[in-house]
Amino acid sequence: MNPVTFTKIGAGAVCSAAAVVLALAGQPVEPARNAFAGEAWQLPVEAPAARPVAAPLQSNCLLCHSMDYVTTQPPLTRPQWTAIVEKMRGKFGAVIPTNQVAGLVDALLIAPGPGGPPK
Length: 119
Description:
Radius of gyration: 31 Å
Order of helices and strands: HHHHH
CATH class of the domain at 55-110: Mainly Alpha
CATH topology of the domain at 55-110: Cytochrome Bc1 Complex, Chain D, domain 2
Largest sheet: none
């Protein structure tokens, strides 16, 4: 085994190092600028909907979806909307009581969308 050698540091060196650390501790430190980063970005502010949305949609759908997403869905039939609502309840954990599913589907059928209600 090799013996471990310790180097003796003078008290002056320790005091000088401590003084530098204490002097720098009070200085504000600016974060380093990332040369590869682009300009700061912001999420778009959601514009208020120009069309009214039924209360069942506001209390159920807008908890997770944006107003634009809800109001720009394609026209679907009652069985299609029912399947989607059940998928949201079962797979994604949407808290929609069973007795409110029919009312929510009714609201989705007449919700303003690009094509209006299905024909």
